Amino acid sequence: MSQNARPKRTYDAARRQARARENHARIIESAAQMFLEHGYAGATVPAIAAHAGVAVETVYRAAGGKAGLLAAAVQVALAGGAERARLPVDEREGIRRVIDEPDARRQLLAYAATQPGVWSRVGPLLRVLDEGAAADDELADLKRTHDLQRHSGLRRFAQLLADRGALRADLTVERATDVLWTLAAQATFDALVTARGWTHHQYREWLGRTLADALLSPPEG
Question: What is the largest CA-CA distance in the chain?
Answer without folding.
Answer: 77
